[in-house]
Specification:
mainly alpha, 456 residues, 15 helices, 83% helix
Length: 456
């Protein structure tokens, strides 16, 4: 097949698989938005309790999600290699067990997490609400890990539509549950922030049970997941998931922590600047769901070809991934830059806040170009099961370059919020370049001598 035609074909495959994944990502993100809106309408204290709890818990939760999400790349490679379906399904079984054990650690963490709230200046009434919220939320953590493991399985076998449909159900449960338990409708008690926690757990378990039922009842998927596989655990499979997943988990922590510190430092420039920056970050986060979803599709397609030992085709998928993400990022950046004030005005009626936010949304638009390209690179390398070097690249880019440069420009040279944004953009750009160079090295090594030549 001619190179151009092959590239277009792979772009189409990425969009086809990536669209349901992207929609699922947006639906899952929407649950957080629903929690914020409904607790905010209930009381400021409830909103502070839920938001503060999530700020503390989310980095650790995302670490676990990234670890067991490594099953996607392994599943795709096994499928490409023509492995037995039961062997492919074992990956998901092992991912679930790792996720379940990790969820127990997270549950223990939720018991001690409220102890750090006083250091952030939270009032005692908010701390009590946060404690109750975390207690209720923690019951859903094992279910969250089950759902994530199966999401990786369905993405790995190129059937992400299942995950998307289940995510619709979870969002519905989240909306109805919050309305019922936060405000006390339909004869249920009015629980406020705690109600949001119970609803999150209920949504997680509804998603986990639904995806389990679909898997075991559908003839095309139940052959993958055999219960007897639980009794045949393999050290090698555990090692594979952890070897790929743990570096991915740390990459997530490096990025999440960077933005957390970025937001905290932004508060030093005043309330309006902090608010404007949060609006810009929210816009960037929403738009980022698309390149993130596409990156998972890239992982699957690269992994399938690597499993088939079609290493030249895998490299073409990498190029296609950059093309698809690059085109979307260019479009989204254009919209954010040229319609920045219109977007800011949607968030607030305060003209001064809207003006500040609009200026920072322009930076968020530029930010999209780098962020979308770097996440495409991460997706490509995940497909090769190469995550250690990207983790180091992210650490250097975010904490060795991006944050120090942002602090220097913002606080030392006096460029304030704009300087901080420039530093973050520069860090993401460095990450994108490093991931691209790593892709070039890895893909050519595979073509030359196969995966055994890759130094991990």
């Amino acid at each position: 097949m001619p190179i151009r035609k092959n590239l277009l074909h792979e772009c189409g495959r990425i969009v086809k698989i990536g669209t349901p994944i992207t929609i699922a990502q947006l639906l899952n993100m929407s649950m957080g938005v629903v929690d914020t809106v409904m607790t905010g309408n209930y009381s400021a204290e409830a909103l502070a309790a839920v938001a503060g709890s999530n700020h503390i818990l989310m980095p650790f939760l995302l670490f676990g999600v990234a670890v067991i999400g490594a099953g996607q790349a392994i599943t795709a490679q096994y499928l490409g290699a023509g492995s037995a379906k039961t062997e492919i399904g074992k990956v998901t079984i092992h991912a679930i067990l790792i996720g379940f054990l990790y969820s127990l650690l997270l549950i223990l963490f939720t018991k001690v997490a409220p102890l750090v709230f006083p250091f952030f200046g939270f009032e005692s009434s908010v701390i009590l609400l946060a404690t109750n919220y975390l207690y209720a939320f923690s019951w859903g953590l094992p279910a969250t890990m089950i759902f994530v493991a199966f999401a990786g399985f369905y993405a790995g076998i190129s059937k992400p539509m299942i995950t998307m449909l289940v995510s619709v159900l979870m969002l519905g449960v989240n909306i109805i549950g919050n309305y019922t338990l936060i405000f006390g409708h339909f004869g249920f008690p009015e629980l406020g922030a705690e109600g949001a926690g119970w609803t999150s757990s209920l949504a997680a378990w509804s998603g986990a049970l639904c995806i389990l039922l679909i898997t075991f009842l559908h003839k095309n998927t139940k052959v993958f997941i055999q219960l007897k596989s639980v009794l045949k655990l393999e050290k090698y499979t555990f090692q594979q998931i952890l070897r790929i997943g743990v570096p991915s988990g740390f990459s997530s922590i490096f990025e999440v922590s960077m933005f957390a510190v970025f937001s905290l430092l932004m508060g030093r420039f005043g309330v309006n600047t902090l608010g404007g920056s949060q609006i810009a970050l929210n816009c960037a986060s929403i738009v980022f769901m698309v390149p993130l979803g596409l990156s998972f599709a890239i992982t699957t397609n690269v992994g399938l070809y690597v499993g088939q030992k079609k290493y030249r085709e895998a490299r073409v998928v990498g190029y296609a991934g950059y093309v698809v993400n690059g085109l979307f990022n260019l479009c989204s950046a254009t919209i954010l830059i040229f319609f920045s004030f219109n977007i800011a005005s949607f968030y607030t009626n305060d003209l001064e806040l809207a003006r500040i936010a609009a200026g920072l949304i322009v930076f968020a638009g530029i930010f999209q170009l780098s962020d979308g390209i770097q996440v495409a690179g991460m997706g490509i390398l995940r497909g090769y099961k190469d995550t250690k070097i990207p983790m180091i690249s992210n650490l250097i880019s975010y904490w060795g370059i991006g944050m120090p440069l942002g602090y220097l420009l913002g606080f030392v040279f006096g460029y304030k919020a704009e300087g901080m944004w420039v530093g973050i953009i520069f860090g993401l750009t460095i990450a994108a370049v490093l991931h691209g160079l790593r892709f070039k090295i890895v893909s050519f090594r595979y073509i030359k001598t196969g995966p055994q030549a890759l130094i991990r």
